[in-house]
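Hi V.,

You were right to ask for the full record rather than a summary. Here it is.
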Amino acid sequence: MQYFVHRLVTQMIPVMILASFLVFMVVRLIPGDPALLASSGENQTSQEAYELARERMGLNDPFHVQYFSWLGNAIQGDFGISMNKGIPAADIIYSAFPATIELALFALTYGFVWGVVLGILAAVNRGGVWDYIASLWTGINIGIPSFIAGLLYLLIFAVQLKILPASGRVPFTEDPLDALKHLALPTIALGSIVAAQISRYTRQSILDTLTEDYIRTARAKGLRERTVMIRHALKPSLIPVVTIMGLQVGGVLAGTLVIEQVFTWPGVGRALVSAVRERDYVMMQGITLLLVIIFLVVNLITDLLYVGLDPRIRLGGKAEA
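Predicted structure:
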């Protein structure tokens, strides 16, 4: 608990504040004027409509005034009014986030489970058939971008075989089976890269762990190989895997921005692309800031998991001898 508070105060909060400033600044460097877009359809002279739009959007205020006003409201969960839709940006973002989180969780779960299984099979059968299959599969999936893989899956399973839907989302509360069918292709397209990375690290980590003295001691005691692998080798081998998994969260969240376009998935990725197209600063800032916060929180959780996987580790202090 002490480590959690220390990390939260000394690292996460300062990084979040810095990230909020960078998000606010970079969004305003994007070419285009939102006030010009917003005033183009109003029945007034162009200059009058333009000036009214800038005043309504607060763009006439100094940069620091705009930033601190936005940050103060964002801390309270208020990201402002969408510049183009005229409704609270938080309402749009919070309605789209469940779809993105759902897709990301399924992709990460699939990537972690399949990656660990494939890595274990490759390590146990080093130099064998499974090792070759795992190496070939990981090489292909690391080399192919997720959106290209998504298009291939669409062509094969939706267009040619017609066994899975090509687009859209169905909530689990309406039809769980249909929801899984709609999740299948985007999950595999997004999660296969994660699985490939996890597989490689799992394989190498297990091979390194199997050379440790305590593994040789366990084998000398006459324990079965399965027991040695599950009880003594697997758990410490997952420590670097958890590290990679935490880093993959950022990649998955970024990948959803593209995959949602491919599969017409109604998440924040599509909302962000729409906001960029319409120069909606408010929407862009809110979505990007939430993605950054999620990534930072996941990294903190990843650090805390180390203690559970290896009791010898004491975060924020000295390791046990």
